[in-house]
Amino acid sequence: MKVTEPLHITEAMLAHSSIAEPAPGEPAIWTSGTAYRVGQRVTRTQTHRIYECVKDVQGRAAATPESAADLWKDMGPTARWNMFALDRNTPSTSSDPIRVRIKVPGRIDTVGLFGVRGRSVLIVMRDSAGAEVYRHETSMVRRISMRWSDYFFGGFDAAQVESLLRFDLPPVPGATLEVTVSGGAGPYGLAALVIGKSYYIGAAQYNAQSDALNFSRMDRQADGTTILLPRRNVPRVDIRLVGPAELTPLIYALRPRLLGKVVIWSGLDDQKEHPYFEPVLSLGFARRWQIDLAYPRNILQTLEIEDF
């Protein structure tokens, strides 16, 4: 298993995004001195966030929404920045192919895409001089054939693959990373784009368990009528790892740093074609990270990971 600590994407690092700000359907840009009424929303390009008015604002009020919590409620990032906000799971969406270019200040070796909506993904890395040092293009659709008759006579509907993980980026300093989600008729989406450095923390053992927490609710009325209020399922993974004892200092240092943070957990690293790849891949946080020191030459770990 590898764990990847995300690198926080700043405004200075985002060199280009094909998603406008504000995007179509998003509120207009906030204007100083304009009167706003309760329920109206505005976009702040300075903070890349959307705010909702919670108390009528007079035209003479010049305080920015981010500095007036009594007048405005922060509703989250704009569509352009949703893919970089790991404190919520709202995707970035666009009717056109999504293209972003990130200037990396240091070295990275990993890129992960989650919640992909599009038939293909292209990843290109260039060094500080502009020379291409890495290129990877992959199809994000998969046709499953269990038997020869499925291959020849089965349907041609393809399943959307939502996750892509690459650990083979060359760790050149000051690189520029370009990611494009395209293919098909759209709309296109990307829930999370994560870059960073990965760490090997052990080999996943057999008998890992993939679970799903369902937050739907049954609303039972007094007359006996029952109404289902559907909510999303949250994937959960329970996995045990084994590794050499020499990994202990690294794991012991990573645990306090990563607990409480949304990071990439990859039980099968980047074995994209393995049927178990996605069930043991998670962009989430560890509910439990137990280290078992029972053996002198090997360290055992128990991880309970919940998707964000």
Estimated radius of gyration: 23 Å
Molecular shape: globular
Q: What is the H-and-E element order?
A: EEEEEHEEEEEEHEEEEEEEEEEHEEE
Largest sheet descriptor: 10 strands, antiparallel
Distance between the first and last residues' Cα: 19 Å
Number of beta strands? 24
Helix content: under 10%
Quote the average pLDDT.
90
- Total of DSSP H or I helical runs spanning 4+ residues: 3
Summarize the structure.
The chain is mainly beta.
What does the model show?
The chain is mostly beta strands. Helices cover 7% and strands 43% of the residues. It contains three helices and 24 strands. It has helices at residues 79-82, 148-153, 248-258, and strands at 2-6, 14-17, 41-44, 49-53, 72-77, 92-94, 98-103, 110-114, 120-126, 132-139, 141-142, 159-160, 164-166, 176-182, 188-190, 192-200, 203-204, 209-214, 217-220, 226-229, 233-244, 263-266, 281-292, 298-307. Strands 1, 8, 13, 16, 17, 18, 21, 22, 23 and 24 form a ten-stranded antiparallel sheet that branches. Strands 2-7-14-9-10 form a five-stranded antiparallel sheet, with no helix packed on it. The chain has a three-stranded antiparallel sheet with strand order 3-4-5. Strand 19 (217-220) and strand 20 (226-229) form a beta hairpin. The model has no long low-confidence stretch (mean pLDDT 90).
